[in-house]
Structure prediction request, 316 residues.
Amino acid sequence: MLRPAYAVEYDYLPAHQCFRTLMTKKIEGLFFSGQINGTTGYEEAAAQGLIAGINAARFSSSKPLIVLERESSYIGTLIDDLVTKDLREPYRMLTSRSEHRLLLRADNADSRLTPLGREIGLIDDRMWKYYEEKQARILHEKKRVKTEKIPATSEITQEVAELSGQIVKDPMTLENILKRPHIHYGILDKYGFGNSLLSREEKVCVEIDIKYEGFINRQRNHIQQIVQQQHRALPENLDYYSITTLSLEAREKLSKIRPQNIGQASRIGGVNPADITTLLIRLECDRRLKQKEQQVGNALLTSEKSDDHTVEAVVC
Prediction:
């Protein structure tokens, strides 16, 4: 190498010395954000600056500090990673770092975070009114497409059949049309079944919520299970190296520390949320296998008792 193309060196504070509010653990009232926390990129610095600024203002006013959970936003994922993981290189926020990507979308960012913004005083009356009206329009449209039906012989259903490659034999609701592959809200507008009161962004929200409803609900249920499973015990003799779906670093850290439960495992540096999901799946598989073995054992025991009674009856 003759000359470095790009190099910037700077000191940083290992972010695990901060709380999730971005206040330092050693000095109360001191908040850090940006490259000093070991991140790289303008967006990462801006996200931290927003939370650190909010919490610094709330701290000075003796108000409770706010924390964004991982499942609520990419900002929450970013900060949670910074303060819980032992980072060895500059951190960049990637969508792949979140295990809740179906819920963390650009089209629903306002529905996820505006209520919190209103609660802490960042959303004025004008913006709050706009938000409520938008959500009401989206909710009303989702109810409408669930009930309005189209005959199987109509022009729109014929085009839907051609685009989706699926035959339409019976009348179907607008909701079922949107759930078909390769079908978008624009086709409703084309044939006069759309809602002219909705903006383009609102139509996108309706389409995504309907088309991926099953997957979205499944991920929400999964998040609830994760929260409920924090205290699930891990077997003392669990062979982590045999679980090949765990990352290599996670296998090494888990084998070394041997956490007692899922919650403790989730706080080990190098063990990411995908690894926790893998552990939960393993525990559930083991539980079902043990339950099945017990059922087989009980069935055999019942059969043996039945045979004994039969023999006694013959002897009598």
